[in-house]
Input
Amino acid sequence: MVSFGGDMIDTEGVPTGGPITFSDMMCSRGANFFFAYQTPKVVNIRSKRIGAMYRLVQAAIIAYVIGYVFVWEKGYQETDRVESSVVTKVKGIIRTKPPYPLGLQIWDSVDFITPAQENNAFFIATNVLATPNQQQATCPEDKNVGIGGVRCASDEDCPPDTQIVNGNGFRTGTCSNVTGTCEILAWCPTEIDVRPVPPVLAGSENFTILVKNHIMFPKFGVKRRNILEDMNATYLANCRYHPVQHPYCPIFVLGDVLKLAGESYSSIAERGGVMGFVIEWNCNLDLSVNSCLPVYHFRRMDNKDDKLAKGWNFRYANYWADENHVERRTVVKAYGIRFVFNVYGKAGRFSPVVFAMNLGSGLGLLGIATILCDFVLLNCLKNRQTFQEFKFLRMESKYLRRDSGKRGSTSGAGESISDSESPRQHNPNNRRPSASPNQRYRPYSNNQVQTHIDDVTHSSPSLLLHPRSIVVMNGGPENGNGHIAYSESSSVQLTPR
Output
């Protein structure tokens, strides 16, 4: 400690014997960083605005934790995702009549369900274009297909053994005078790709669909299916799904499903489309397992307003051999509705670990109220400098005493200020503080520090000033008992030369 003008300057912990080097300064700062401890200081601020803001933010956080996290999201439960499989059976009969190319014909589920089984999907034909009795031969190409080289005026326009792009076969080198197209070697007669209107299989809207859905939550070992335990054969033979009257019936009518999806059968049957069949399982396993029930939703997945490649269709063929052992086939272009199943959901069960984690996170969020109020006090109010002086305090370890019996006349662990008070006005005993290390400290202003630096350098030329860490104890020069006692990065420190 160096004394000047009644004040004491702390020079401990600073290297001596010459000027301060950059490495000495960095070592000193590193020691201050690693061997420093911060403890909260309680400042009670009597302000209606700040107090109201603090309580409102706390109330909003508590409402969020209780209302959303625990009630709505069930933040006290551990969860598991559903695993699922779906099997369907479609039943119905349709009769077609001339002018349908195949004439009078009965269609059942074997005919209009193609393919017979798909993974989590099925297809129902609603319109067909049939080209019967094809065999491999030569015939004129369809003038409505292919890209270039279909139409011809002479045989020179039909080079033999060449393929027509997007056509039905290979050119033979002959131009047909009847159609004005090149003759080809292909399955003849070629398909006339004109969509039937109205749909040929219009009665398919009355088809019924039995859906069997098995699900499992592997974490909890729970298995369920959409055919419930209290259902019997009589109920399944007569029930049809209805969102209010029979919400758990597993048998659906095709036309009703389209209506629930906001679509009409007549608009989708002609060209076909893709429908989403959604089964949702959200189960609270804190209740009975029997309360774990499915919820059904329906929606159209393709865009009915598409300009090109609209709807859903594909081709398939039936092959046979005639009495002359000539291979023949019937090609069917099927338009229809493809249903795609989407099964999702989750199950939850109470877990003390999850509950404790979410509760701790919620309590931690309450600190946002303190951060917000501190930000307002430190940056937004006119008297923010007053709050800063009361909130922040620094002291060196040499002022810590193990003997707790000798205490100064401090006012306690916390300080209380109001909107109108300043640090100099806040003195409950209405007297100047002493120079005891246990007293509260307040830094000098920059002008006061610079004045005492000038005095000490003039009276003690053997000391070297280093702009790093000099701070003045509360009391200052006005009572002659001030001490320069702890570090502050914006001040200076004196070092022996």
